[in-house]
Amino acid sequence: MVKSNIKKIFNCDKNKLWNIISDNNNYSWRTDLSKIEIIDDTHFIEYSKNNYPTYFTITNKEKLKLYEFDIENTNIKGKWIGKFKDLEDGSVEIDFTEEIETNNFIMKLLAKPYLKSMQKRYVKDLERELGKR
Question: Which of 44, 50, 61, 131 is surrounded by the most beta carbons within 10 Å?
Answer without folding.
Answer: 44
